[in-house]
Design goal:
Layout lengths: L1 H8 L5 H5 L3 E5 L12 E5 H12 L6 H14 L11
Antiparallel strand pairs: 1-2
Helix pairs in contact: 1-4, 3-4
């Protein structure tokens, strides 16, 4: 139900709300067996805070579940930080 809500409001989220949050890039070693498919990890402070809040109020059980609800909708609405931060 929450995922449907996110899809409904994603276009109305302020462009700066997520993009102004600090986004960090963590490069990983692609030759380590436990990280073979994970060469970079992006983390945005505003998305992390939102995922934690959703967990704390009981809408989702895990941060992963929260990200699965919010990231696709925000991505489709072009509300996520620009890929140029990876450069």
């Amino acid at each position: 139900m929450f995922s449907a809500f996110m899809w409904a409001i994603a276009e109305h989220v302020s462009d700066h709300l997520i993009q102004d949050g600090e986004t960090t890039v963590e490069n990983r070693d692609p030759f380590r067996s436990d990280q073979a498919l994970l060469t970079s990890k992006l983390e945005n402070a505003m998305l992390r805070q939102t995922a934690n809040a959703l967990q704390n109020i009981g809408l989702v059980r895990t941060a992963h579940e929260a990200y699965v609800c919010i990231i696709p909708a925000l991505s489709c609405a072009s509300k996520l930080p620009n890929e140029s931060i990876v450069d």
